[in-house]
Amino acid sequence: MSKIPKIIHQIFYQGEAEIPEKYRYYRSSVQENHPHWEHMFWDETKSRIFLEENYPWFLPVYDSYPYWIQRCDTIRYFILHYYGGFYVDMDIESLKPIDDLLENYELVVSKLIDINNAIIGSIPGHPLWLQVFEELKKRQLNENDSQQSPNINPKVKKSMAYDVTYSTGPILFNDCIIAGKFHEKLTTRLCPGYIFEPGAPMEMNGQITKSKVTEESYTIHHMTTRWLPIGHRIINAIFGFITNFYWRFSRPNPPTPLP
User: Fold this and answer.
1) DSSP SS3 for 199
2) Are 204 and 250 in contact (CB under 8 A)?
3) Which domains does the chain carry?
4) What angle do CA 85, 90, 91 make, to 5 degrees?
5) Which residues contact 225 (CB under 8 A, 6 or more apart)?
6) Cβ of 57: how many Cβ atoms within 10 Å?
7) Which of 29, 72, 126, 159 has the fewest beta carbons under 10 Å from its own?
8) 3-class DSSP assignment, residue 98
9) For helices 160-167 and 68-83, what crossing angle results, to 10°?
């Protein structure tokens, strides 16, 4: 029996009318594979009303973010705390229903090298979210703290991409799960990367590997990075081409997926 409500949440901050065609295709694949689930769509207006009505204490932090993607990151956490269900990024394509991944779990997440925040399943009120809320406040207040992530190059730490991922995105999400040891709990399903995000570098059997095989995948995360400025996206595309060449010709065959 599933503890996680069968609700799928998706966010496009600029509004439904502005959704690009390829995102509409990905969204329709999610809807077609989950006709028996409730689907909730969120934009800037709905997100702010939801916070005003249910979490008004967070509005000063929410309004202080310089980038809209930070508000998209944070609103997913509050939605899952309140409603539960699955949050699914708009650039995720569904291959088949995720129902049989739920079983009796209270938290379902995707682990690449670290744990990503692009697709998350949760019961309402999961204790992870209280830890996330506290960390969001801390990182907003200590935005320029020189002690944060001391192993990261200072130039990288000044970039928009790092600022977003550290303050509200996957770095914060992964840090909260590890700090609270939620990844070790029997009620958490830690899905290897090929389940939701085939094609991305992932850790399996103690190795970093990459494979586009989708036989056991439920979704494909296309990682369009639309939230980055165009210059960052061009650099990202060039870097992606180089790393894809490396993975194709320099890496050994990927290890057998974990059962």
Assistant:
1) coil
2) no
3) 7-249 (3.90.550)
4) 125
5) 232, 233, 236
6) 9
7) 159
8) coil
9) 20
Whether 256 contacts 233, CB under 8 Å: no
Alpha helices in 65-159 (DSSP H): 68-83, 127-141, 154-157
Q: What's the longest Cα–Cα distance across the chain?
A: 53
**Single pTM value for the model:** 0.83
Average pLDDT per 10 consecutive residues for the chain, totaling 259 residues: 93 95 97 98 97 98 95 97 98 97 96 95 98 96 53 52 91 96 97 94 84 91 67 42 38 38
C-alpha R_g of the chain: 18
- Residue 148's CB is within 10 A of a number of other CB atoms, namely 15
**247 Cβ neighbours under 8 A, 6+ residues apart:** 201, 210
Run of H or E residues at 88: strand 85-88
Instruction: List the structure tokens of 15.
Output: 């509004």
| Nearest-angstrom CA–CA distance, 153 and 225 | 22
